[in-house]
Amino acid sequence: MRRILRYVGGRLLLTVPMVFVLLTMVFVVLRVMPGDPVSAMLGGHAPQAVIDKKKAELGLDKPILAQYVDYLGQLARGDLGDSMILKEKVSKPISDKLPATIELTLCGLVVCLGLGVPLGVRAARKRRTGHDFGIRLYANVVYCIPVFWMGLMLQMIFGVFLDAFPIAGRVGSRVVSGEFDRTGFYIIDTLFSGNFEALGDVLYHLVLPAFTLGITLSGVFVRLTRANMLDVLKSDYVLASRARGVPERAVVYGHALKNALIPIITMLGLQFSALLAGAILTETTFSWPGMGRLLLERIYLRDYPTIQGIIVVYALFVSFVSLIVDVVYAIIDPRVRL
Amino acid sequence: MDETKHGAWMSPSAGLASLLGKFSDAARKYRVEWWILVAGAAIILAVALMTLVPSLFTSYDPVAQGVGPQMAAPSAQHIMGTDNLGRDVNARMVYGARTILGVAIAASLLSALIGIPLGLISGFAGNWLDKVLSLVMDSVYSFPGLILAIAFAAMLGPGVINITVAVSVVYIPTYFRLVRGQTLQIKEELYVEAARAIGARKSVILAKYIFPNVIATVVVVFSLNVADAIMTEAALSYIGLGLPAGIPDWGMDLSMGKKFLPSGVWWMITYPGLMIMTLALGFTMLGEGLSEILNPRLQEY
């Protein structure tokens, strides 16, 4: 256990340079490119004196390097700063929207693994048959479907033509929004308040976005599971357990899949950023009030501190997940030394 | 057939001959992979033909409004229907190919042009420069690429060049990491040491001994990269960050069609998406086929 904690500490330190690099890029790009929060706020026709005054107020008249040092100092104290456009802390909209994005991403992940892993196992078991071919075709086609188009098609088929699922938002209008003040994770909030009708509504709204995200990313996992299962099924211990008369299901799911899962977990860490990128597009398609939509809104307003804050949060999120993946990896595979 | 992969320097014509030999061997040896490659190439050629001779595929103007009724379902006149401004959807698909294919290929080339030299230098030098570059590239690589592309595209503003730059930022680390890894491996090979021993200059070693051996993998990755860039370009213009209004573009057509989805106008969103998917599939298939044939040891990951 101490070994793992030590490793976690080291890894956490490693995220600092990553955040630093990304932040620096965004910081410089934001300030070098045309457009700034003052002209976004005041429009193009404000008198120069007003513009200058406002710029000085926001600290935008200082050299970029000075602004940068100020910002890093602030960040080191754990403060993301204040928005330049709205009178609020940067952390406020982020903590409002982050749960929506996490909820969507995790549900998408569940769908993705729930589809990808069993299909991959099946393709490997039925190698070189129609099943195998069909599943591989599915994996390759799905991989090339843009997330947002998948969303639109599901909306069209299940939302408009069949009228079976809602195509926008996190909850229906009948559910009181006061329910969701506790954590912002609607599933958890409704579970805590014991309001199962609202929970049902939340899940109902999650179906299409989660499947949109899950299906498009499942292709990678089908291919990976299939390739690993093929390797594992050839191994001696699978042969041995078959020879002992262990039922085929137990061989495949008990012995083989467990070992094939290890690279899948690694892949999960790598695919997580793809999942987050997909979540942005899904949010746009389904009017989902998450981080992606927040980022787009604030980019148009040139709200520098909020954009920087969002990038920092995304970067931390990605490194946090890859850390979890590594730790899980070490726990399930005793051969790995952290 | 493997001696060429890690072989020393080859003359271009010998290289080409051995490549062609590989392909005809491959056609016999990897039946399925060969057909995947051919199918992918066929898709790409068809789309390329669209960009070169659009009049073969449609007689309508993609930006002329009111060439038909508004939002008419597909019919003999307008085989893919018309959009909300009465423009012919089929014409928009044909002319839109130019935009997406051009941007995706240009962006991938730009990434390769920046990523490959940096990777070569970084892997070959292996000093503090390598450490700094690797840190920067790994940071960008592990971050969701689309978010960076969004930030760049939004800051640069709409325009064909701007969107190309925004897309290319995402893929520089892909080439960098690939080339750096290969360079690290190859520079330990005996023939590189031999070149060094006879006093070849560093630039010569990089250009004539290391680069030609790296390039085979780069070709595969380039093809897969274009597939990815196609989807990134489409995503950016779907979000509304891509191009000025006058240019026909599949992603933009999708976001337009989204508004009319609740009234059941299926043709405005079905065709642009199908086109994006098919084109991306073409490049993926080409890349997969190439990877089986050029690097037979890299089977399925």
How does the helix and strand content of chain A classify structurally?
mainly alpha
CATH H level, superfamily name of chain B:
MetI-like
* Tally of structural domains of chain A: 2
| CATH homologous superfamily placement of the largest domain in chain A | MetI-like
Rg of chain B computed from alpha carbons, rounded to a whole number of angstroms: 22 Å
Largest sheet of chain A: none
- Proportion of residues in extended strands of chain B: under 5%
> What coarse outline of chain A follows from CA principal-axis ratios?
globular
Order of helices and strands of chain B: HHHHHHHHHH
Mean pLDDT over all positions of chain A: 83
Regarding CATH, which class of chain B? Mainly Alpha
Question: So what's the overall shape of chain B?
Answer: globular
**Unreliable sequence segments of chain A:** none
Cα(first) to Cα(last) distance of chain A is: 11 Å
